[in-house]
Amino acid sequence: MRIVLLGTGDTVGTPKIGCTCPACLDALAGGKSARSRFSILVESDEGRVLIDTGPDLRYQLLRFGIDHVDAVIWTHGHYDHYAGFGEFYRVQDRVPVYGLKDTLDYILEYLYFMDPVRNDVSVYEPFHLIGLEFTLFLVCHPPIPQSTGVIVRDGDKKLVITGDTNKHIPKHSIEVMQKPDLLICDAIAPPIFDLDKHMNTAEAEELAAELHAKKMVMTHLSHMFPPHNLAVKQWNLGYDGMEQVL
Length: 246
Ligand SMILES: [Zn+2]
Ligand SMILES: [Zn+2]
Ligand SMILES: [Zn+2]
Known about the structure:
Blueprint lengths: L1 E6 L14 H7 L10 E6 L2 E5 L5 H7 L7 E3 L5 H4 L13 E4 L1 H10 L6 E4 L6 E3 L2 E7 L9 E7 L2 E5 L9 H6 L5 E5 L14 H11 L4 E4 L8 H4 L11 E3 L1
Parallel strand pairs: 3-4, 4-5, 5-6, 10-11, 11-12
Antiparallel strand pairs: 1-2, 1-13, 2-3, 7-8, 8-9, 9-10
């Protein structure tokens, strides 16, 4: 499978409107600190699935030449993970969407003007799309009662995407997340920031060690990092357009 990080930013994106911090200035000058909102493309020989549809989706589809998707999976009902779905309006009809019941109820009310094909799924129960196996698992992202991450299997290859989460991931999820070939991990800020909705980089590194991840890439990154080219000397940060093949 091929994975592209379409958007590696946090809720506000980088640059943050009105901010003149070093990361935002680098982003404004065209540097890799520029981060659009969360979306990940998972592609196989049979098609393309989007994990979340952040508000910058139109720009991401154009930039990465994505003219059609076969399905969308929503991890949770936060604006920065679903609001871009409206960009399919008059572009692609009847897009199949997958998620937990409460997540779909919430998002589809916002997207009342759209006509997606709804597919309710349960946590820890695999389903199949584009020749790959997908499984949602519970994470911990207060105040949302049920927020999920995604496991994608392609033969013996395993991708784990944490979605938005703090470090208090349920034990059963930690078990099913074990030994990923690639872990794409929420790490919103350096460790000087202690946040209750997300992990910082130290917590992400601890999780990667606990899971025995072969490789870990951080995403959902805020402007609180130093400019990207400096930050990557210390942390394995993703960037918009980063591609991985498993
Ligand atoms: Zn988010
Ligand atoms: Zn800033
Ligand atoms: Zn969130």
